[in-house]
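hiii, so i know i said id send this last week but things got crazy w the move. better late than never?? heres the sequnce for the chain we talked about at the cafe, plus the structure i predicted for it. fair warning i was half asleep when i ran it
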Amino acid sequence: MNNILVPIGTSPNSKETLQYATDFASNFGAKVFVMDVFSVSSAAGSLANVKEKVAKSSKEQIKEVIDEVNTKNVELKIATYNGDIVDGLNDINNELGIDLIIIAPRSNDIKEELYLGHTTGRIVKQTNIPTLIVPKGTAFKPVKSILTAFGSGILKRNRVLNPLVAIKDKFRAKINLLLVKRPGYSEEDLQVNTALLDISEQLIITEQGTTYLGVLEHFQKQQPNLLCVFRRKRGFFKKLWEKNTVPKSEFFVPIPVLVLSVKK
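okay and structure toks below
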């Protein structure tokens, strides 16, 4: 794991998220790219150096956040982007190769009833970059127990597991698998990828209406400090395919959530 990206905006929790990312990155010797997005339309072109001035202001705001963080010898670099955040993430990923995005569940959204705000929801929904969602106020601790929950054991490419394997190996974490039989499941869904089985301690099979309900059923017993799920077109965050926000009433866990993509 070499390159970690942290999108920050006007959220008061930006410092907390960046500190978590820095602490996390220090264990891997990874670089952290701190990203902010602004939007200057072509219509503003008549104003002299508008884009440059906005970009400079954006960088200054990022530097203020960085100055409040204990960098622990981690290399932090600033990345600004003029345009849409999803386009920016994809462009930076194509240029640098981002191994992981670390982000808070809600960015600029102050609605306490939401688990995923609009911006975070779009990132999880519309990118294929592995994403670690870190709840507000979470201080970094070495990961010791990981619950990996899914409704289908099919993985077309083993490399989607790379972030999970890296975390497991670095912290010597134990991985428990939770296969949730949901309405309409197929026998193929029950055939768990061998690479996933190889890195796990045990496989638990349960039957629930949704994968999340399966997680709720076993969360207290397992007491993981990281939940891993897969981003599929009709997977764990199914609601994201209908809207970009996710209410806490539909999903909430008080621990970091690692979202791996199997969309491609």
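btw The chain has a mean pLDDT of 83. thought thatd interest u
miss u guys!!
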